[in-house]
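Exercise 7.
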Amino acid sequence: MKKNILIILMALLPLAGMCADDLTPTPISIVPSPVRIVPGNGNFTISAGTVFSVENQEQAAIARNFIGLFTKSSGITPQLTMGKSEKSQLRFTTDSSFKSEAYLLEVTPEDIQVKASDTKGFFYALQTLRLLLPAAIEGNQPVKDMVWSIPAVTIQDEPRFPYRALMLDAARFFIPKENVMRIMDCMTMLKINTLHFHLTDDNGWRIEIKKYPRLTEVGAWRVNHMDVPFYFRRNPQPGEPTPIGGFYTQEDIKEMVAYAAERQIEVIPEIDMPAHSNAALAAYPEFTCPAVKGYIGVIPGLGGGNSGVIYCAGKDSVFTFLQDVLDEVMALFPSRYIHLGGDEAQKVYWKKCPLCQERMKKEHLANEEDLQGYFMKRMSEYVRGKGREVIGWDELTNSSFLPEGVVIQGWRGLGAAALKAAEKGHRFIMTPARIMYLIRYQGPQWFEPQTYFGNNTLKDIYDYEPVQADWKPEYESLLMGVQASMWTEFCNKPEDVDYLVFPRLAALAEVAWTQPGAKDWASFLRALDVYDERLTAKGIVYSRSMYNIQHTVTPEDGVLKVKLECIRPDVEIHYTVDGREPTAASPLYEKELTVEEERTLKCATFAQGRQMGKTLTLPIQWNLATAKPALGSNPSEKLLTNGIRGSLKYSDFEWCSWTKNDSVSFTVDLLKKEVLNTFTLGCITSSGMAIHKPVTVNVEISDDNCNFRKVGTLNFTSQEVFREGNFIEDLALEMGGVQARYVRVAAKGPGVCPEGHVRPGQEARILFDEMMIE
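Solution. The predicted structure, written as tokens, is:
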């Protein structure tokens, strides 16, 4: 017995000398999350002596790409051999039982085995290895004394969807070639396999077409109206200089396409038609309807009525022109798909155009929507005749017929229009604007650069589930995948694009690659932090909005309830109410705060004693109306008495709005009779979004909420109402010391924006942020 005990003790002696790190598997954090991860013990270290063995030239190409990372970041270059080698430590083995893009990765302290059925699978296995290496692998300068180790692990993986895409809009903001390629490289780590390249729009034509040189000589350049945000910009005047823009030469395109191919990315070009075509028509105005009489220029903003200038559907020369363009485009892009746009086509000129009307009669078309259907069908057939397939936006479903085989991208709202195509057996892609448009705010708006519409946060994108419970079973089989769309209206430099794309692109990757049952928000955030380290190593400044605090202040029984939220559950919120900056030693926010008087609340997120997000400063004002109930049925009316003033961002969740703006009315209960001296109503003007103050504001008071008497009226002229700009006004009225419990406000909307407005003919909206009574 003693001899047996001695043998056991001797066997355990080597383990006693090992540190705890050697016994505990290293945590593995990868985005998108693989199907199966089994951590091992120890690490594999890559050095100059490491040998990669591959089976063929296709595998060799992706291995060289991976080895090149070490050459740049470490100065070492692992070796590459073709065929089996006893000396190799990292081996590729083809296994035909795997699905396309799937792989098995086995890392031990001695070697690395990679199995897949195709080049894509081997490539994505290497991208996973890339995320397991130190972040310095992404640098361009050799790092000294770095140990290039990979934790031992077995990973089995395959994607949920075959189509995993980012759309880059280079038309509204010209994204330099080098920046596009850097974004592609960041896509590869996330296993995103498609770049939808939006190359033409009203705001710029970005691809050289040799047969039509004016497309880039004229169409690639616009006036410099960048002193105001996109939606405030006026249209150009004849003869006005056009210094803003740029374009890709055909050599640039070839370089980007080749760069993408090395990274298993398919680049799908979009040539938008029949609308979003002002840049092309500024160069070749003969391709618009004869009903268009005014000057056509490249639009610097939304364009107003000019955005209704589109290709003429009645001219055969238009189709010849577009076919010539597509011939050159298809020669540059080997992609399976060509995107023909088809979105937001206003038919105002088609209705006036004798040629378009004649075309409708000749083709027996019921209306202008079917004329667009004819237009898109004709162009689609041309593309299909060249051996390619067509993608179009979901407005194509507005017509009574769809082009044969067209793939529909669902974008409006939640993308439901795509299901109209699915009902007819068409494949579709989901990129709903309300979730997947990266132009929207990615965090609490008080901290964000100005854009428009609402929020699409990192968590909004992560939580998105494209397959809905009420879908017919066949719809899911027609869903090709998902896409995040980066529209660039508010980008003035390449860094603006980076800021909006990253890190939200990682959430898109998780939706596209990972099965919904395998997703875990906390695990995703840990993996995201690993990915973000790579972005930093590449010099990309990504958004840290996920660390910022969203506030909700709600009136409740004469007090204010303050709710503070952060989408990261791994941070603490600390706050102060005396105006001092918060620190990790400040009170910890654990539940809603109750505020009963004027305060300045400051708060921020912290982790391990370090401040992570920006400081949120909330000056809570107090007057007779503060914390008092608004009695209307509109839930946003509670914002009128919550003590918080809105910002210049009309969608920051502090502005009260109404569905119908012709007549707005609300009543506030002061809870007891008060002496009323002044009435003030906060109002915002954002002319670019057709937001203006009302024509009239009537203020009435009551003791019983039944019998009201007028206190006064504010009237504004059309010139006062439709002022241009983005500003906040306080609409004030003297009340003269009257006494009452209830105050009712009735406002008359401003009506339709007049001619000469940046949004002519659009109904204006009213937004109020606070009712203040002293």
